[in-house]
Design brief:
The longest helix has 27 residues, at 213-239. The chain is built from 24 helices and 21 strands. Strand 11 (341-344), helix 13 and strand 12 form a beta-alpha-beta unit. It is of the alpha/beta class. The relative contact order is 0.10. The protein binds adenosine-5'-diphosphate and magnesium ion.
C-alpha cells in the first residue's frame, strides 16, 4: 500500500477507506471533508482516558469516568421537558443515569433492565447520590469504550470509536513523500519529515503542542504553499508581454495644476511605480493600498489620464453606483474637456446606454466609470488598456486572476483597497500582486477626536449633535450590528430613527439592509446634498464615498466591532476642514481590555498600526472583511504565534524568485495544500 511519493492516495475520496460507508461519507461531506487529506486536517480537540473502570463506591465527582452498571428501574416524567431517570447499581453502590431530551424508547433501548452495560461520562453528585447526566457512552460491549479516545469535533452521526479507526487507518497508510524542503530549512524543524509530523499531529498526547517542531513544520508547509501559489501567479502575469504605454509628464501636470493641494510623498511614489509599470513591456498587476482618506483616487485618475494620452481606453470599476458617480464627477472636473468620459449607470436611459456602448466600441469614449456592469459581455472596448478597481478588498486571489485576464494582454490592472492588513499577512493575501502603499496622510488632515460614552449618557450626545447641526455639520449615527439577526439589526436602526426624528424633526434619514439599492442611493444622494442632517444606518454604507460635510460619527454598541472596522467607520468623517469627532457608545462600563482597545483607537489614526493591534487582540480571522476576502484560511499557521515562520517563508520565496529556482520539487506540497486549478498550469 505504501506508495513512494504518491500523493494520489491523500487526494482520493473516502471510498478508498475501509469502514466508511455512504452515510459516513455524507456526514463528512457536509463538513467539507471530501478527501483523505481533508480528514487529516481535522485535528483532535482533546482526549479522554476511558480505560479506568471504577466501582461506584470509588467514583470521583466531576471527573469523566467509565463504570459497569446494571439498570434496575426507569422513572419517566409525566411532564415534558423533565428528565428521565434510570436507577442503576453495581455490587458496591448506586448511581442514577439522567437523560434530558431523550425519548423513552431510546432510554429503554440503550439501558435494558437487569443487563450489565458499560457507561462513560461526567460523574456528579446530587443529594448524596451519584449521577451521570446524558452519558457520552453507553454500550454492552465494554471494549468499545475502555481506551484512550482522541476527540474530534465531528462525531455527530459517527462514533468517536469509528472516527478514530478511520484516522488510524490513514496514518498507517500514509504514502512516503519526497522531502520538499532544503536541508537548511528542515534543520530548523529538527528534521521532522511530513509523515512523522502528521502522525504526531494526531497523537492525543500532542494536542495543542504548538511549540513542537512537528507542528511548526506543518504550519510552515501551509504558509509556504500559499505564498508559492501567489508568487507563481505573479510571475506568470509578469511574463505577459504588452505594448508599452507612452506618455509624457504633461498629462500628470494637467491634473496636478488643477488641484489646490500638493500630492504627498507616498502619492508621488505610487505614481512612479504605476508609471513604470505602464511604460514597461509587461502587464501591470498592482495593488494600491492606503488607509481611508489617504488619497488613492487622485493617483488613479492621474494615471488614467496618462493611459488615455497614450491612446488606450480606461475602465474604472467601483463597488456601487454612487461611488462610481463620485469618481466620474471628480474626473469631469480634472480631465481636459475634450476627452470624452462617461458614467455607465443602471439609471441612465437606454438611448444613452446604447450611445455609450457604441462609443466605447468606436474608441470615441476614452474612459468609462461604473460598477461591475462595465464588464458585461455586450460591452466591447475598442482598445482597453487599463482597468482600475476601487475598494475590492473582498476579491480573492482567484477572482483577481480572472480580472487580470480580462481586457487581454495589453490591459494593465490596478486595484485599490483601504483595508490595511498586518505585515505578516500581506504575502498570503496579496502575494499575487505588486504593491504600492500610501501610508502618509495628506497633511491638511485634522485628527478625528475620538470619545467613548456610556449609553446612559445619551443626553450629552444629543446636546453635542444639536450643536454640530446648528453649525451646519452632518452626522452619521451607526446602529449596533446584531450578527445573529438581520431583522433585529434593522429594528434597532428603525427605533433609533424614530427616537431621533422626534428630537430633530425632518432632519433625519434612515438606511438599513432592507432598503432597495435604488432607494438607498436616493437617500445617500439626499444626504450628500445636505437635505438631511443625520443619517441613521447600519454599517451598510461602503468605504470610499466622500461626505465632505459629515463631521460627526456616532457608533452605538461599539464593542461589537473590531478595531479596524471602527477605524474604517470613523474614516467616513473628517474629510473637510472642520474638526471631526467620533463618539463610541457602550452599553456598560468598559472592561480593562475594552479600554485598551479604545485607547488604541484614540491614540492612533494609522490603519496599518491599528490592524496590527486588532489582529493581536482578536486573531486574524476576524479582521475586517478578512473572512470574505477569499484569503486562505490557515489550519495550523497562526500569523501572530508563527510570525517567524511567515518571515521565513517570505525569505524563501524571495530566494526562489531571485535565483529563479524551479518549484518542481514543491509539487506534492502544492498539490496537497492548494488543490486549486491554478496549480495545474504551474507544476
Ligand atoms: P481614499 O484613499 O480613501 O480613496 P480619496 O482619494 O477619496 O481617499 O481622498 C480623500 C480626500 O482627500 C479627497 O477629498 C481628496 O481630494 C483629498 N486629497 C487627496 N490627496 C490629497 C493631498 N495630497 N492633500 C490634500 N488632500 C488630498
Ligand atoms: Mg477611495
Amino acid at each position: 500500500m505504501k506508495n513512494k511519493n504518491n500523493y494520489d492516495y491523500l487526494l482520493s475520496d473516502l471510498t478508498k477507506l475501509n469502514g466508511v460507508g455512504k452515510k459516513t461519507m455524507e456526514i463528512l461531506k457536509k463538513k467539507k471533508v471530501n478527501t483523505i487529506f481533508d480528514l487529516l486536517w481535522r485535528l483532535p480537540k482533546s482526549y479522554t482516558d476511558r480505560t479506568l473502570v471504577s466501582k461506584i463506591c470509588d467514583l470521583l465527582v466531576d471527573k469523566i469516568q467509565t463504570i459497569r452498571i446494571v439498570p434496575l428501574k426507569y422513572q419517566f416524567p409525566r411532564v415534558r421537558n423533565l428528565p428521565s431517570r434510570v436507577n442503576c447499581e453495581d455490587e458496591s453502590g448506586k448511581i442514577d443515569c439522567i437523560f434530558f431530551h431523550s425519548y423513552e424508547g431510546y432510554v429503554r433501548k440503550i439501558l435494558p433492565l437487569n443487563q450489565e452495560v458499560t457507561i462513560s461520562g461526567k460523574i456528579t453528585s446530587y443529594k448524596g447520590r451519584y449521577q451521570i447526566t446524558n452519558p457520552t457512552y453507553v454500550s454492552q460491549d465494554s471494549s468499545l469504550i475502555e481506551t484512550v479516545h482522541n476527540k474530534y469535533s465531528l462525531t455527530e452521526g459517527i462514533t468517536e470509536k469509528n472516527y478514530n479507526k478511520i484516522i488510524n487507518q490513514i496514518l498507517k497508510n500514509l504514502p512516503i513523500l519526497n522531502e520538499w524542503h532544503d536541508k537548511e530549512i528542515l534543520n530548523k524543524f529538527e528534521n521532522e519529515s511530513w509523515n512523522a509530523a502528521i502522525v504526531k499531529l494526531h497523537d492525543p498526547t500532542n494536542i495543542e503542542n504548538y511549540k513542537a517542531s512537528f507542528y511548526k513544520r506543518l504550519a510552515y508547509d501551509e504558509i509556504l504553499a500559499s505564498f508559492l501559489v501567489n508568487s507563481e501567479i505573479r510571475k506568470k502575469i509578469k511574463k505577459i508581454k504588452k505594448t508599452s504605454k507612452k506618455f509624457t509628464e504633461s498629462s500628470h501636470n494637467e491634473i496636478v495644476n488643477k488641484l489646490n493641494f500638493k500630492l504627498t510623498k507616498d502619492q508621488n511614489k505610487s505614481l512612479i511605480d504605476i508609471n513604470n509599470d505602464l511604460n514597461s513591456n509587461s502587464k501591470m498587476f498592482r495593488l494600491l493600498q492606503g488607509d481611508v482618506g489617504s488619497g488613492k483616487t487622485i493617483v488613479a485618475l492621474i494615471s488614467a489620464l496618462s493611459v488615455v494620452r497614450s491612446n488606450f481606453q480606461v475602465a474604472l470599476m467601483a463597488p456601487t453606483e454612487i461611488l462610481a458617480r463620485q469618481h466620474y464627477t471628480l474626473a469631469k472636473k480634472l480631465f481636459p474637456e475634450n476627452i470624452s468620459i462617461e458614467l455607465l449607470s443602471s439609471k441612465s436611459d437606454n438611448i444613452d446606454k446604447k450611445r455609450i456602448i457604441n462609443d466605447l466600441k468606436t474608441n470615441k469614449v476614452k474612459m468609462v466609470f461604473g460598477t461591475h456592469a462595465i464588464f458585461q459581455k455586450k460591452i466591447i472596448f475598442a482598445n482597453l488598456g487599463y482597468i482600475i478597481i476601487d475598494e475590492q478588498h473582498k476579491f480573492g486571489v482567484r477572482q483577481r486572476k480572472l480580472l487580470s485576464d480580462k481586457g487581454g494582454d495589453n490591459c494593465d490592472v490596478l486595484l485599490m483597497s483601504a483595508t490595511p492588513i498586518p505585515r505578516t499577512l500581506t504575502m498570503s493575501v496579496y502575494g499575487d500582486m505588486d504593491i504600492s502603499i500610501i501610508r502618509e496622510k495628506p497633511n491638511n488632515r485634522k485628527e478625528i477626536k475620538t470619545y467613548s460614552k456610556l449609553e446612559s449618557k445619551i443626553d450629552d450626545v444629543i446636546k453635542f449633535v444639536k450643536k454640530e447641526i446648528d453649525e451646519e455639520s452632518q452626522v452619521f449615527w451607526v446602529c449596533p450590528l446584531i450578527e445573529e439577526s438581520k431583522k433585529l439589526d434593522h429594528q434597532s436602526a428603525v427605533k433609533k430613527y424614530e427616537f431621533l426624528n422626534k428630537i430633530f424633526p425632518n432632519k433625519v434619514a434612515l438606511l438599513h439592509g432592507k432598503i432597495e439599492n435604488e432607494e438607498k442611493e436616493k437617500i445617500l444622494n439626499k444626504f450628500l446634498n445636505k437635505e438631511y442632517s443625520i443619517l441613521v444606518s447600519t454599517t451598510i454604507i461602503e468605504v470610499g464615498i466622500d461626505f465632505p460635510n459629515a463631521n460627526v460619527i456616532i457608533i452605538e454598541n461599539a464593542n461589537k466591532f473590531g478595531l479596524s472596522q471602527l477605524h474604517q467607520l470613523r474614516g467616513r468623517v473628517g474629510r473637510g476642514d472642520k474638526q471631526a469627532s467620533c463618539i463610541l457608545m457602550f452599553k456598560s462600563n468598559l472592561s480593562v481590555n475594552a479600554k485598551k482597545r479604545i485607547n488604541i483607537l484614540k491614540n492612533s489614526n494609522d490603519g496599518f498600526e491599528i490592524s496590527e493591534e486588532d489582529m493581536k487582540l482578536r486573531g486574524f480571522g476576524d479582521l475586517l472583511g478578512f473572512k470574505q476576502s477569499g484569503a486562505k484560511n490557515f489550519k495550523l499557521a497562526d500569523p501572530i504565534q508563527n510570525e517567524d515562520l511567515f518571515i521565513l517563508a517570505e525569505k524563501q520565496i524571495r530566494k526562489i524568485e531571485l535565483e529563479n529556482i524551479s518549484i518542481k520539487k514543491y509539487k506534492s506540497l502544492l498539490k496537497l495544500y492548494d488543490q486549486a486549478d491554478i496549480i495545474n498550469d504551474i507544476v
